[in-house]
Each structure stands twice: as C-alpha cells, then as structure tokens.
User: Fold this.
Amino acid sequence: MTLRQVTVPLFALILFGVFWEWLVWVNDWPNYKMASPSDLWPAFWKFRWLFLEYGWETLWRTVVGLLLSVVFGTLLGMVMGLSKTMRDALYPLLVGFNAIPKATVVPIIALMFVGQHDMNTILIAFLISFFPIAVSVSIGLSTLEPEYRDILASLGASKFTIFWKIALPKTLPEFFGALKVAVTLAFIGTNLMEIVEPHGRGLGHLFDSGKISADYPLMFAVLIALALMGIVLYYVVVALEKVFAGWAERDPT
Assistant:
C-alpha cells in the first residue's frame, strides 16, 4: 500500500473521532446517553481481557461462516450461471429467503439447536452472507459474451477450458465485490446470534451485558471493536482481490 492509501483513511477516522467528541461536548450529553471517544479507552482497558477473549470468539466464528458462504455461494452461483433452468428455479427462492429479516430467523435457529452456540452462530453468519456471493457469480457467468465462447469452441476448446480460461476470470471482479459486502453481513449475523443466546460468548454478548447494566461506554466500545475487526477483514479481502483480480482494477480519471 502507498503512503496515501494509509494516511487518507487514517485521517478520515481521526476526523470522524474529533467530530464525534465535539458533538457530545457541544450537546453536553452525559455518557449514559451518548458515550464520546474519550469514554471508550477506559472501557476498553477495564474489560481488556474480555475484549481479547470475546473478540477472538466473534472473529473465528465470523470467518468460518464467511468461508462456508464463499464455498456454497460460489457453487450455487455456478449452477445458476451455467443453467438458465436452474437460475429461473432458484432465483425466486433465494430472493424470498433474503427478503426475510434475519433477526426473525435468529431465535428460530437458537430454539432449533439449543446449546449449540458455536454452530448456531456460524450458521446465521453463513445464511446472512452467502446471497450476494451466489448472485454475483451467477451474473458473472450468465453474462459471458457468446463471442468468446464461440471463438474458443471453434478452436476446439472444451467446455471446461472455456469455463477455466474465460468464464471464471470474468466472474472474479464481481465475486470480490460481493465478498466485501458479505464480510460486513457475516459480522452482523454473528453478533445477532451472540446477543440472542443467553449463555453465548462473543462481542455481541458483551454488548448485551453493557446494555443490561446501562454501561454505555462499554456498549460503544464493543461497536468500535466490531467496526475495527470488520475493517481489518475487509482489507484482507482487498489484498486477495489485488492478487487474484488486480488486472480488473481501473484508476478513475
């Protein structure tokens, strides 16, 4: 990364923190109404071991759920992208399922698999994040220019060669764009389950504990921790995108 790519986002974060501090100060809000950035560090330090332990619990479940969504979403997208019949059959089901608020699905899963907190959390992270991946892969494959397919076929290329050489690379920009969205969705799913589960572990559970005890600095500290974890995972995806699909990036003019 260049110096500009590091300093510009960092400056934006600092500017956001200063504006947040000023907003709380100018409105004279107490920390039980709106915590300020200066209230967060004491909360982080007081619960530092819980942040480390619960942060790891949230992170690994989110990553596992995200990896499952990549595998399943890619396979499902390939099925829909390569078969118009399957696309017409599966799209309404996927759209209908995605339209259901996942907050209503979380308690159902928690009741179905009582005591299976890890599995429940991974499952809801997967369910909430696979849809954009499946759709992006499907669109990338179904919009393959027929001229490329015809030229390679006339040269004797097999369907597998056409898929490997043309169709698959073409879907990579759409795939990584959807994966960036899926990263944030997976964190949402993980924390929804951690909040609902009464004996759960993770940052969502720590947030719920802060809510019960009216510890607003702790609640906001959890939100900031989740945001930072999401940013880190997002830039991991960006790094992978530069490795596997860097050729598709175009600098704005």
Observations:
- The first helix runs from residue 3 to 27.
- Residues 195 and 208 are 6 Å apart (CA to CA).
- The chain has one domain: 47-247.
